[in-house]
Amino acid sequence: MGNTDSKLNFRKAVIQLTTKTQPVEATDDAFWDQFWADTATTVQDVFALLPAAEIRAVREESPSNLATLCYKAVEKLVQGAESGCPTEKEKQIVLNCTRMLSRILPYIFEDQDWRGFFWSTVPGAGRAGDEDEGARPLAESLLLAVADLLFCPDFTVQSHKKGRPDSVEDMQSLDSCEYIWEAGVGFAQSPPLNYIHDINRTELLRLLLTCFSEAMYLPPTSDNSILNPWVTFFCSTENRHALPLFTSLLNVVCAYDPVGYGIPYNHLLFSDYREQLVEQAVQILIVTLEHEGGQPYRPPSPSSMSIGPNNLFVNYLSRIHREEDYDFVLKGLARLLTNPLTQTYLPNSTKKIQFHQELLVLFWKLCDFNKFFCLADPRNSLFFFLLPVSSRVGLMHISVFILLLLSGERNFGVRLNKPYSLHVPMDIPVFTGTHADLLIVVFHKIITSGHQRLQPLYDCLLTIVVNVSPYLKSLSMVAANKLLHLLEAFSTTWFLFSAPQNHHLVFFLLEAFNNIIQYQFDGNCNLVYAIIRKRNVFHQLANLPSDPTTIQKALQRKRKSPDVISRTSSQETVSMEGSRPAVPAEPGTLKASLVAMPGIDKLTEKSQVSEDGTLVAVPQTESPQTPEHSAAAGTSDTESISGRDNEVNLSPLSSGLILQVLSWKSKLPLQTIMRLLQVLVPQVEKICIDKGLTDESEILKFLQHGTLVGLLPVPHPILIRKYQANAGTAMWFCTYMWGVIYLRNVDPPIWYDTDVRLFEIQRM
Question: Where is this region: Disordered (predicted)?
């Protein structure tokens, strides 16, 4: 009954606010207290009882009342942070104000005229003893109050006070480093679980995320000098809790075990409040760990002039260096990311997490800001691309970005030679081999799946293969056949001629073959055998026609023939047992748009491996014949290469196309492979005739003990294309990250039906 009265009183207060045409004084506590002091409403109640239309009506018709409501709510949070919320009533007021601001802020952000409101000072709202000109902007007061409240004893953390129950810890002198939420990086004690503390932390983190979401209401831009002022201030030295909060968030995420004690169906019997906290924590982490390309898009206040663009969350992440800390973080992420793939005898008996997209973004940021995470054992790190094999396009993109980043490190390529034994159920052929074999088999599956929106990733996938190829000691027969099948498909005449950049894929594959032959010949008899079997593909490439008539015929033939890159042309059709795990559906019926992905030439910079193993940068060339050139002249920096099958104008056939074909054809790196075929094919044929061999195992044995020492051209320098941070990928990550956060926060629907501009929301 009391709860019904509470909702009724809150609704009456909302109606009064929307119908009052005159400004209500800030000193009229009897009026303002109706919103937080006398109610016990849940966050869902606040969203239901304060409709979007009414918030917008107050914003347009009674702007001073909306401003006062925001100011009074922040004031209550500041008071709660100073007092430490010793009473239940004070705790309830803080929670009510938190929910109210979470509801209102998106409607402040969607209106350009209101966006500066929280960065203005309110008369009389200065810090104690300050004059008005030294007053903090409302945004700063709000962020500092939330940070204090996240380490408030008996509200969000366990009290350390012994003795009288009414004794209150002094919030100003409290050392929050002693109150870190979970054991892990930089903290050894694991505080007892308290679900009320978890719920309160979750509410405050939701408000924090809403504050940071101003970025959603700005159009996408490739200007990476624009920073989020809310994040910039919160992660600065002004926030005395920055270190313990960063550590708390990271440890809570990485220590979380959704399976718990492993009792079947336990997630259906009990509410898991820790999961809600972990979701909010990982979302706060990925938003706060932002690149510092420049200054915030608003002049800093006098109180923050001395800060500079030093993001402490990034700073602390980059300084993690202890082996046990890496181990804790990577094992935690691997446990969570493999959770959706876990299979049990009892259907749906173990809990499946839904926030793996955010976890992948977090892993990307870990690798980007701290290179030691790039040196991780692939038995951990390779899990980060297993999920997307049959999943969403955005998830696939980020997994490929992660692997592109990792593939630039020699250590990663070397560690791919470790045996792959942990068979996660996937829709790929059964094989026995290494992590390198797994990588190639999965990439082949992605390329041959025929998904149109995955075509911009082909260059990235093959760049990863090229980067790791000099270190691959022994490819399985399955993986070797997959690589040859890709070459066969990409070197058909109609595919090579149908778009100006399609030949890049052939160049990448030939470079990978050359690296393996020159640097890892001894252990790769399977690949050598596959090359010999498919030698006609290389001969056809060497004799590729470049006259107009043949090109025209090839392009016309393309219209009649089915796509070579399709599942039907894959050689193996037997899938692993238990493959095709259920992929969780997109929440609701909405999806967020993504900006175009930059071409591979914008994503990477070339480095040459010197004799001592160090990388030396290779100057970028402007030549359009190199595989790194993104497309024909005139394409934009962010234009993707999705037009693999765009038809070339057939009448008349352009002389430019003929010249282009002649130019790249003369640069095909076929010398090493042709020399190999010239030496080995006659030997293999002679053995087969002399011994009457039909068993390929005997041929493999011969190739295993063969040598090409002194017979091949001089080994070429190893060329690595390292991922290069740029404005295009920064924008892609920003839109992807906020799109995921928008779609994941549906209860309550924080941003639903607001005028988001960073991406488009499309109904499915």
Answer: 556-585, 617-646
